[in-house]
DNA sequence: ACAACGCTTCGATCATTGTCGAAGTGTTCA
DNA sequence: TGAACACTTCGACAATGATCGAAGCGTTGT
């Protein structure tokens, strides 16, 4: 017998609530949020949110830190974010080809962070541009930064050895659920996103994971990277 | 607002039923099964199973083929299997360190197929052995077959170019949910599993995804590969 | 054409679980 | 010490959805 099946079902049930799913997607950028903020995105009262958060934390999907009188919740590991991304990718497959694509928030579709790197049209466009210029080779399952790519990023001030001896992969693909194509992830993707925030090419919107592309950003992505966005 | 959250929740709800979870795990080896067989593993009546299967197919998790009077269901894409594997990996994290590990079916833990390659203790042992002999480099995020590894597999009669110009990656890691360590997947992993079946090193058990290691298999994995199992 | 079989649809029932009000805990600051 | 605040626990209620019996559909073989 498949003794894991009940466990898998229990586990999936954790995500199978709109409130909890909302909280999890809200946390997919890797940052911590207060219980109140998560109650807000879930659209429920603090009591209800607290109950949901307790369940998620009990199953090690979230970890909680205390900060004064408030509690901060974040995803327990990057693995959780990867799993959610995988689920979204499969969930985004349009089951009924006749129906119009599910209404995805346009801002979200345009540009967002996926844990710690760029996603959405922006993420894919930048990835495509780097690929076209020979900075990057990337398919759905693996990726590789070329010498030219490393030099290019180096010129921008990105030191890819930054977290010295990091066990994390330099360059890996991440399947973009809204574009249904891979974008750049891994250490390189994270470093690129960091740079974009530092240079004010993109700004986090107050709520959610979507980001705003500034005028500077538009210019930079277009001219420096050759991205078509 | 996160317009995807409700979709994600709906999607997760599909997996959040013990019956459906059982059906899905049963199908994770990539083969097709009849509705009756799936009703059996789910432990429900055919009517109920039919209802579950219809839901899964409607959301494009499964696809159905007719074969005479019976209907055969299989996973719609390998991506679905990968997603389920990712979920199991996260679900298998023991939330309560005090409790003993969740009782996983020992046969399942010992040796099973994961879509089309080897998993469980056997899968990890073979992977480790190949790694130790310099045939393979592999971590959680990426993998690479060395020249020695390609030669080694070639000597065994594995032609890794077999599906000519396959878009599928030669060598990639797959995180083993029972062992919590990566094992060999991709085209190389599939070819190796094929070989093991052909040479009768392993045999599918009548039900489920677990496989039996034959005496020949034990000898082959130990001597040929140097695996400690 | 008819019977047998596998599977699906329909309808009613019952359990699970998400929900919020009220009350409780713990932390910070005055 | 006491008040304010963030969050959690408890208890009861309502809705969603899984289940099976009964009946219907479609395919195969006689």
TrEMBL record, chains A, B:
One of its GO terms (biological process) is response to cadmium ion. Residues 1-95 form the HTH arsR-type domain. SMART domains: HTH_ARSR. PROSITE patterns: HTH_ARSR_2. Gene3D superfamilies: Winged helix-like DNA-binding domain superfamily/Winged helix DNA-binding domain. It holds the Pfam family HTH_20. One of its GO terms (molecular function) is lead ion binding. SUPFAM superfamilies: Winged helix' DNA-binding domain (SSF46785). Signal peptide: none annotated. InterPro entries: ArsR-like_HTH, HTH_ArsR_DNA-bd_dom, HTH_Metal-responsive_Reg, WH-like_DNA-bd_sf, WH_DNA-bd_sf. This is HTH arsR-type domain-containing protein. It comes from Bradyrhizobium ivorense.
